[in-house]
Amino acid sequence: MADQKDNIDDFKVQTAKHPNMGPAPLQPHSEQSRDRLSKRLSTDSNGTSDGGAGSSTPVEVTALEESFRRFAIHGDTRATGKDLHGKNWSKLCKDCGVIDGKNVTLTDVDIVFSKVKKKSCRTITYDEFKVALGDLARKKYKEKAGDEAEAEVFKLIEGKTPVIAGVTRAVASPTVSRLTDPTKFTGSHKERFDNTGRGKGKAGRVDMVDTSGYVSGYKHRGSYQKKVNKPTEGKPM
């Protein structure tokens, strides 16, 4: 009992000398959750998991993988770019010229997609994507070795982006030009534009009442006031 009492007395003395000693204050639950989230995001960005040693150097994305991501997110706002579904896979092969209608057809593309993907999935990963391209490369370039054929197919896809369909281009037409040129308008339509082709606004659409006192078409409007204000030459002031 005496030894235990001495230990307690020593602890009190040490605490008195060092008031900062003692258990660390507990963090609020929200701060703990924020710390765990920050750690997970940092781990994901470095490509490591808990307990693993990873490098903080970012992984360089190749041109082929960049094209894969662009087609993976095409038309889908919820897509992450990490996997590619069958519709965009077919679009990629079509837009990049992998499908030639002879050695590689749309049917071949669909068959290869079903072959490389997992049975329980509707999408393929980037690694499965390269395997699928390898199968199509051997069909498209039969005269070349496997590695050479894959390299040729990769070149067709690298740096490419999805082609946006349905965009209408303006076509120059004499008829359209004549109908959109204000200088060639006649009648009431001509009154809506000035000599430069700029619209007059309300003045060109509504009949404005002229209260100046001049008759319509009079060309010397305002000339009388100029004559009155003009100083007489040769007469003393």
From TrEMBL:
Comp. bias (Basic and acidic residues): 1-12, 31-42, 188-197
One GO term in the molecular function aspect is: tubulin binding
Could you confirm whether the keyword rRNA-binding appears in this record? Answer: no
Return the InterPro entries for the record: EF-hand-dom_pair, TPP/p25
Instruction: Kindly state one GO CC term assigned in the UniProt record.
Output: microtubule
Instruction: Please provide the Gene Ontology terms (biological process) for this protein.
Output: microtubule bundle formation; microtubule polymerization; positive regulation of protein polymerization
What top-level branch of life does the organism fall under?
Eukaryota
Renumbered to this chain, region (Disordered) spans 1-58, 181-206, 218-237
Key words, A-Z: Cytoplasm
Cellular localization per UniProt:
Cytoplasm
**Basic residues composition-biased segments:** 218-229
Q: Which family does it belong to?
A: Belongs to the TPPP family.
Name of protein: Tubulin polymerization promoting protein
